Automatic annotation (TrEMBL):
It comes from Sulfurirhabdus autotrophica. This is PAT family beta-lactamase induction signal transducer AmpG. Keywords: Membrane, Transmembrane, Transmembrane helix, Transport. One of its GO terms (cellular component) is membrane. The keyword tRNA processing does not apply. The keyword Transmembrane helix applies.
């Protein structure tokens, strides 16, 4: 079984350079930044503001529910596939509306008080996540429709790296700014930052509309499911999405307690993870995108899958080495580097699975499914580490990646994969 990603592989160095420095890649990067910016503004930054205002911890915990739109975005994705607004086209029209609404919602934080109006704050936060999730839906669809199949891997890596930079600005930058100005002003500045995405949307080209797009809301809801599950290997692809990064996800879910148990200080952990981890992930995403552009998504999935297993096994070695900062830095850098590569290929693969007639709906469904292992499989990791010990647990995380590679061999055999 092949995917759309197999249609072409870039081989000429000049062709690669033209693709890397094309306006399409810049748009993918900036749109990623615009999508990553709001995420922590309703997470860690909002939690810091509420705690500073003396809000009870139980209330702060309940605010995690404002993130539900990110999980449920597939519910209204069919509307964005079915209808087009009068101006700017099928994708850019919805994207501009989502971004402007997101700006207004972020500005709404300026008129709330966590201690005096927690319910109003919750409403504003829910509006931010709703319009942020809507932006994610349209950007994912836009990227799939704007990029050629061979460009999806690099485009996805650009998007993911932009997303992480947006999170860094909002999370790290927002908290730093909050030490020097009120949180209300911080949110105003973050709202202004959304203008980067607005300007990009206005200047970007509108993708061509594929033939056979839904003409009724019913077809927009039902046809994406029917089209997908009529394919050969439909269930197999879903299983692959669930399992490919399972070991990597489980291992990274509980690394902080692991480092602490080895005797690393919180300062050492923070410095190494931020300094080595973040930039290694950025580098891995970009270099992974170049590999995909050169060899195609399927072969890249094989290479990155084995590298992810090797990086997970690095935690086993660290468990035996113990409290050694240089060893920790090497393990963290390698794990984040390979994780960035794997994510680039993974996101590109999901994009290649979608039918351009139903891009928004199918991608929203697949990306929601992608988050299942992060939530469900991460839950028992603490118990497993207690029962197996750290070395045994990370050996298990290394081996649990094999089922995903076995499924990959079903539709892209290691020896026969040309893309």
């Amino acid at each position: 079984m092949t995917t759309n990603s197999e249609s072409a592989v870039t081989r000429s160095p000049m062709d690669m350079l033209r693709t890397i420095f094309s306006g399409r890649m810049l748009v993918a990067f900036v749109m990623g930044f615009s999508c990553g910016l709001p995420l922590l503004l309703t997470g860690s930054v909002l939690q810091a503001w509420m705690r500073e205002e003396g809000v009870d911890l139980s209330v702060i915990g309940l605010f995690a529910l404002v993130g539900l739109p990110y999980t449920l975005k597939f519910l209204w994705a069919p509307i964005l596939d079915r209808f087009a607004l009068p101006l700017f086209g099928r994708r850019r029209g919805w994207l501009l509306l989502a971004q402007l609404s997101l700006m207004l919602s972020l500005l709404g934080f300026s008129f709330t008080s966590p201690s005096q109006n927690p319910w109003l704050l919750a409403f504003v936060a829910m509006m931010v996540t709703f319009f942020s999730a809507s932006q994610d839906i349209v950007v994912d669809a836009y990227r799939r429709e704007d990029l050629a199949d061979r460009e999806l891997g690099l485009g996805s890596s650009m998007y993911v790296n932009g997303y992480r930079l947006g999170m860094l600005l909002a999370g790290g930058g927002g908290l730093i700014l909050a030490d020097h100005m009120p949180f209300s002003v911080v949110y105003q500045l973050m709202a202004i930052s959304v203008l980067v995405g607005v300007v990009t949307t206005l200047l970007a080209r509108e993708p061509e509309v594929a033939e056979g797009t839904p003409k009724t809301l019913r077809s927009a809801v039902i046809d994406p499911f029917v089209e997908y599950f009529q394919r050969d290997g439909a269930i197999m692809f879903l299983a692959f999405i669930l399992l490919y990064k399972l070991g990597d996800t489980m291992a990274s879910a509980i690394t902080t307690p692991f480092y602490l148990d080895l005797g690393f200080s919180k300062t050492e952990i923070g410095a190494v993870v931020k300094l080595f981890g973040f930039w290694a992930t950025i580098a891995g995403g970009f270099i992974g995108g170049l590999f995909i552009l050169r060899m195609g998504i399927n072969r890249a999935l094989w290479l990155f899958g084995f590298l992810q297993m090797a990086s997970t096994f690095g935690f086993v070695l660290l468990a035996h080495i113990g409290h050694e900062v240089a060893a920790m830095a090497a393990v963290v850098a390698f794990e984040n580097f390979t994780g960035g590569m794997g994510t680039a290929a993974f996101v590109g693969f999901m994009g290649a699975l979608t039918d351009k007639r139903f891009t928004a709906t199918q991608y929203a469904l697949l990306s929601s499914l992608m988050g299942v292992p992060r939530v469900i499989a991460s839950a028992p990791t603490g118990l497993m580490a207690e029962m197996m010990g750290w070395s045994g647990f990370f050996i298990f995380c290394t081996l649990i990646a094999l089922p995903g590679l076995w499924i990959l061999n079903r539709f892209a055999p290691l020896r026969g994969s040309k893309s």
